[in-house]
Amino acid sequence: MKSPANGPLLARLPFAAAVLCSLAVLGLRLPVPGQGRQPQDQVAPPPPKDVSLVISQEGARRIPLAIPPAIAPLNPELQGRLVDPFHRTLTSDLGSMATFILADPSLFPKGARPTVTREQGDAWIASGAQFLLDTQIQLSETQAQPGTGQVIAVAQLVDLRTLKVILSKSYTGTPAAVRKIAHTLANDLARQFTGQPGPFLSKIAFVSDRDGGQTKEIYAMDWDGEGQRRLTGHRSLSLAPDFSYDGSKIAYQSFNRGPSGIFVIASDGGAAKQVPLTTSLNASPSFSPDGKQIAFCGSVKGNPEIFTVNADGSYLKRLTDSPAIDSTPRWSPNGREIAFTSNRQGGPQIYLMDAEGANVRRITFAGTWNDEASFSPKGSQLAFSCRNEGDFQICVLDLLSGRTFQITNGGANENPTWSPDGSKIAWEVRRGDSSQIAVANPDGSGMRVITALGNNTSPTWSRNLD
What we know:
The chain is mostly beta strands. Helices cover 12% and strands 37% of the residues.
């Protein structure tokens, strides 16, 4: 287990949290590793105990795209308030996609917009672009209340080889929504080339101690770290958030009414409701894909097990029955399986079982401690926290081939979560005394740290696109 110098185990590692609650709160002894295996457990033959370290991978050829700043009236105030944040957001979104490579702005031709002649098209191609995203921004202000009008953004995607406009869109919103307009346009570009929108309108919920003292609250932010806002105000320990699949609610664990309980709050904030439970411990909630059930780690007779319960607290069902510690459940996207962590065969490893609790089988074998499973949106991959020696890292298991890849290297890395389109993974990264949220491609490349204030942990990505 981690040193106390690295922060409270209860607030950092779900399996360790279950252990601490069991020992300190319930007065249990840790089961002897390898004992207590139940007849229902099924153990697949272990594959070779190795993990490949992959920092970057070559993908398909990236599409060269030129994104010059939007054309707008010559108004310095308009430039700083609308054009600059619109352009920053748009280029950041599309530049983060493995689909595109952005042409060098220093090579952009002047006076070649709109692009209607072959000479103008060739000038853009010479900058390294194959497509041009040409945008214009206007502000329709009212006479009575200046600054309260509507932003009108017009975008055209031009194929520079044929000079044909292959996408034309118009967007309208308030000045405060200019970044959302840019995210929406980026999603439309992603859909144009990949068949599905990007993650640019999705949200990430997380835990932060920025309010001071010993409190931790649930926060939410845009996928790129902008718009950070507090959702809970318990002034207590609120941990382990999980989005419902439709993005409307967040389940989390909190001690604000004494013992640990499961709470649900709207994803835009408001009053939190506690799920009425007869179990103790009550940690690591996970919404089922249909939003009707919550899986969680709870206890009836002192030992942490996996339970499910309806969102209103009815129909409590125990899924595991082992003297080992079972924790950190996560539903598969199809709702038919649940991954969880258990030390029933020694050190903590990840297991898979049917949603009814049958057909339990171990699926991780490399490393000495694997925890915090997170299914990719299609359910074909599993990201998790892995450790062989030293600090925890982020690993990805391909469930079809059984191959495991380590995508981080250096520092402590935990609590992975997938973007709703599967193009990104977010996790908490610890360097020195600071824990922050990072976002990267699924191979670990292109990592960006998107939080800075206080310590920020346990990210969970909303699963709905658009």
